[in-house]
Amino acid sequence: MNAKEKPDPTIREWEAFCDQLKTSGRSILEAGSDMDPVTRADGLRYLGRLMRGGVEKFVEYGDPEDPVIYKIYHEKIKWGFDNPDSIYNMAAISGDREYELTGNRGTVNYFNISTMAMGVDGKAAITGFINDSDIAFDENGNFTLTLGTEPREGNWLKMTPDSNAFMIRQTFNDRAREKEVEASMRCTTPSAGTGALDVDTVVENFRKARGFFSRTGETFIDLTSNLMKCVNELPEADPDYMASMGADPNYAYFWSSFHVEPGQALLVHLPRVPACDAWSLCLHNYWLESLDYHKARVILNKHTAALNSDGSLTIVVAMEDPGVPNWLNTCGHPWGNMMFRWTRPEEVVAPQVELVQLDSVDWSSRLVKWA
């Protein structure tokens, strides 16, 4: 049988990959076609990031027999309300195997480790979870953690038969000073493989990568559509929905879209700031990527914000610098999304939000007492 009668599966998959990128990419971009030019420019860049993220996740780092811990988000790849104050380290695992994680806790303010059953649509179910406070470290901060379906003595993280992803989620107050967790993982279940690439496996991994591109894109376009129904508010996110996304169970989330034109400011106020491991407010674009935090201040947290004289907090979201503390720069975006996070607070305080005209704000009273 010649090649024409039996097409090469690698060629078939590459053509399917390219076709799906074209079709799904157009659908994603059309969802934002009525938005401003900055948002549309973000959208085209976002498609490239989704493609790269899918290939990294499923093709480059998708082997559960040879797990490699890598950063799924950074300055140049992000989606789904990423948090610039956090590092998300991920590796591929398989529920029919066991693993050993070794590392050092560093000095990061807070971290946890989880296993997940993760799909290609941006959603995930946590199958095992452990806080940093429940891990035993030696005097130098070193640790070893076993991952498997059967409990083990010492540090152990639960897996289930459908576990396919591993994550270290660490949250900083001051990333310039705090040292991140260092860790490496190895599969301790013997493998009979030779190490050679398998055609069927690579084809399937590319199939997952294109599924990720379209399904994850759809998931977050749908979420943006829902968020735009509550503009310039910060209601609490549905805990069940957040759980379906594999969100940190120690967080309380508030989110909405924002709309701020030149000459306006959105004031986000907390009447009190309870003790907590961390809190932050971050600005995101229409596509749910954090704005370019390596270029401008788009996030404030427990360490970087200045409290009002009465202990309250007021954050100012605007296109232009209003000349007051706690300004978050929309980076030219009149439209976007925002998320407020509490990390293990003594009390969950709901943010209060008000849209004002910059030329009519009395900052001397506004930053002391919320009217």
The H/E string reads: HHEEEEEEEEEHHEEEEEEEEH
Assess the beta-strand content as a share of residues.
25-35%
Radius of gyration: 22 Å
Query: Terminal Cα separation, in Å?
Result: 80 Å
Largest sheet: 5 strands, antiparallel
List the main descriptive attributes of the protein structure presented here.
371 residues; alpha+beta; Jelly Rolls; 2 domains; five-stranded antiparallel beta sheet; 17 strands
How does this structure look, described?
This protein is α+β, with helices and mostly antiparallel strands and 371 residues long. It folds into two domains: 9-187, no CATH class; 228-366, Jelly Rolls (Sandwich), CATH 2.60.120.600. It has helices at 9-31, 37-60, 199-227, 239-244, 363-366; strands at 70-71, 86-92, 99-104, 110-118, 124-131, 142-148, 156-158, 165-171, 182-187, 251-259, 264-270, 278-284, 299-301, 313-318, 327-329, 335-343, 352-357. The strands form four sheets. The chain has a five-stranded antiparallel β-sheet, with no helix packed on it. A four-stranded mixed β-sheet has the order 7-6-3-9, with no helix packed on it. A four-stranded antiparallel β-sheet has the order 10-16-12-13, with no helix packed on it. A hairpin with a 5-residue loop joins strand 4 (110-118) and strand 5 (124-131). The longest helix is centred in the middle third of the chain and has 29 residues, at 199-227.
Q: Could you outline the blueprint of secondary structure elements for this entry?
A:
Blueprint: H1 9-31, H2 37-60, E1 70-71, E2 86-92, E3 99-104, E4 110-118, E5 124-131, E6 142-148, E7 156-158, E8 165-171, E9 182-187, H3 199-227, H4 239-244, E10 251-259, E11 264-270, E12 278-284, E13 299-301, E14 313-318, E15 327-329, E16 335-343, E17 352-357, H5 363-366
Parallel strand pairs: 6-7, 14-15
Antiparallel strand pairs: 1-2, 2-8, 3-6, 3-9, 4-5, 4-8, 10-16, 11-14, 11-17, 12-13, 12-16
